[in-house]
Amino acid sequence: MSGLADLGRFEEPAVLVLTSLAERPRHGYAIVQDVQAVAGVKLGPGTLYATLARLEARGLIEGLPAEDRRRPYRITGAGLALLRQRLQRMEAVARTGLARVAGT
Amino acid sequence: MTRLLIRLYPRAWRRRYGSEVLVHYGCGRLGVRDTLDLLGGALDAHLHPQWARRGRTWPWIFFLAAAGTACLWLATAAFPVESVLERYGSEAELELLGLALSGGGLAIGLAGLATRSRILSTFGALMAMRLLIDAVALPALANRHVLPVTSGYPWLLASSLAIGWSALVAAATRRLWPIPVGLGLGLFLEVLLTSDISLAAWLGRNAGLNGPILLRWVAFSAWAAIVAALATPSRQRRHGSWPPDDPAAGARIPRKPYDADPEPLEAVGQVWRRP
User: What is the number of structural domains in chain B?
Assistant: First the structure.
C-alpha cells in the first residue's frame, strides 16, 4: 500500500478528498463542495483531478460507472486504512499542540 | 474557455476526466484562480501521467532527449555540408548517414510517445542521442573528424551494440533504471570488440580467427536484440488500461487485470452506460 508522503503538494488535497469519500461515493464537484463545507478549502479543478488521478493510480479510491457524464468515486479499503492512520496521527499532533498552547 | 483549457491536457486524461470537468465547470464563467489551476493541472498531467501509470511512457525523459537532440541538430545545421564532404569525402557521408539515423531515432521516439510505448520512446531517444553524439559531439570534442575507436563500418556496429543492449535490457526488465546498465554494457562491448585493442583484433592476430566475420556476427546479434526489444509488447499493451479510457456503450466492464484490489470491485460485470 502506497502512502501519501510522495504526493508532494497533493498530499493535503488527498487527505481532504479521502475524508470526503469516507462518508459516501461522490463525484468531482460534490467532493469540492463537501471539502469546502468541512475544511473551508476550495479545491480548484486542476488540483482536484490531479489528486483523484493519483489516488486512483494508488488504489486508494476507484471510479464507479459514470452517471449523467459524472463519474462518482469511492474510497477503497486501502484508502480507508490509510486515511484512518493519517487522521490518527494528525489527531495526536493536534492534541499535543493544543495542550502545549494551553500551557503557555 | 473550459473546453479550450481541457484541450491542453493529454488525450488519455481528456477521455478519462474531460467530460466530468466540462459538466462541472463548463457552464458557468471560469474564475482566474480556477483557470490558473486548470493550466497547472495540464502541465502536471503531462509531467506526471497518473491515470495509466503502469507501462506508460516516460515522456519527460524523451522530451529531454529530444530537446538535446534538437539543440545538437541546430548546432550542426551551422556546418556547410558541401565543404565537409569535399574535405572529408566518404567518411563525412558516413557521418551524414549517422545524422539521418539520428533523425530516424527521433521519429521512432515520437512514434513511441504517440503510441504510449515506453520501450519505443526510450529506444528512439537513445538512438537519436547516441548516433548524434557519435557523429558530431565526440569528434568535435576530440578535435578530430572521427574517433579512432569508432571510425568507418565499426562505428555503425558500435552504435548498434550500445543501443541494442540498452533496448534489450529495457525490454527484458520492463524498468527504466537498468537502461544505463545496458548502455554501459553495450559501450564496454563496443570498446572490447571494435577498437584497436579489441578482442576481435586480438583473436584475429593470436587465434587465427577472422575478425571481420566475428564483427558481423556481433552486429547481427546487436540488431537482433533491437528487433527483439521492439517486438516485445509493453506491459500496458498486454493488459490494457483500467478502467478503459473510452469504453463502447454497452460494453462489459472487464475485471481489473493487474494487482488484486484490497476489496472486490463492485462495478465488475455491470454494463458501462454512456450518457
Answer: 3
Give residue for cell 472487464.
B254
A-contacting residues in B 31-90 (Cβ below 8 Å): 33-34, 36-42, 44-45, 48, 50-51, 53
B238 touches chain A (CB under 8 A): no
Question: Which residues have a Cβ under 8 Å from the Cβ of A7 and sit 6 or more positions away?
Answer: A14, A51, A54
**Which CATH number characterizes residue A82's domain?**
1.10.10.10
Task: Give yes or no for B250 touching A (CB within 8 A).
Answer: no
> How many angstroms separate the most distant Cα atoms in chain A?
54
- In a mutagenesis test of the B interface, which of A1, A26, A49, A64 is the best target, namely the one with the most B β-carbons within 10 Å? A49
A76 touches chain B (CB under 8 A): yes
Helix (H) or strand (E) holding B57: none
Residue with cell 462495478: B267
Q: Are residues B165 and B258 in the same domain?
A: no
Q: What is the pLDDT of residues A73-86, one digit of tens each?
A: 998 888 888 889 88
Question: Which residues of chain B does A29 touch, with a Cβ-Cβ cutoff of 8 Å?
Answer: 23-24
Q: Measured between CB atoms, which of B22, B253, B261 is closest to A59?
A: B261
Give the count of domains, chain A: 1
Tell me the per-residue pLDDT of B113-133, one tens digit each, with 9 for 90 and over: 666 566 666 667 666 666 666
For residue A74, count CB atoms less than 10 angstroms from its CB and return exposed for 0-12, middle for 13-18, buried for 19 or more: middle
Start-to-end CA span in chain B (Å): 23
Provide the ipTM: 0.83
Q: B31: domain range?
A: 2-51
Angle of helix B118-132 relative to helix B153-173, nearest 10 degrees? 160
Q: How far apart are CA B84 and CA B82, in angstroms?
A: 5
Helix axes of B32-47 and A45-57: crossing angle, nearest 10 degrees: 30
